[in-house]
Amino acid sequence: MLANLQRGNAHLVLERTEEDMEGSWYVQVLLRDDNTYQLEFRDGVAAEHYQTRTIAQAKVLTVMLGWATGKADWKDGFMWNNIGSQFEAVLAVPALALPVCSSPATSAEPAN
Predict the structure, then answer these.
(1) How far apart are CA 66 and CA 50, in angstroms?
(2) Cα dihedral 55, 58, 60, 63 sign
(3) In angstroms, rounded to a whole number, what is the distance separating the alpha carbons of residues 38 and 31?
(4) Residue-wise pLDDT tens digits, 57-85
(5) pTM for the structure as a whole
(6) Can you list the pairs that 57-65 forms with residues at least 24 positions away whose Cβ atoms lie under 8 Å?
(7) What is the pLDDT of residues 15-52, one digit of tens each?
């Protein structure tokens, strides 16, 4: 699947789902328009979201397979930047309060 990624919006996500693990646990790759691979992983919470880039497909494959099989050294060979603050800011935005509207056909008004 990695070898078949096309530039632009092509991405691959591997997600770990286990009942005893809360949060989001995944590693993902995006093949960018400039032929670089953008790798990201999240360890449970937004604050633990990291990113790096490379031009080497073989390195991407090593990361993806290493993460999937639980190898301890899957992150080695890259400088990972914590980008968790980008996601925490999104979560901090309060939900919009929508007005409650009632249809005139269903509202009961007192008779005069």
Answers:
(1) 16
(2) negative
(3) 6
(4) 999 999 999 999 999 999 999 999 999 88
(5) 0.72
(6) 57/2, 57/3, 60/2, 60/29, 61/2, 63/27, 63/29, 63/39, 64/2, 64/12, 64/14, 64/27, 64/29
(7) 988 777 788 889 999 999 899 999 999 988 888 899 99
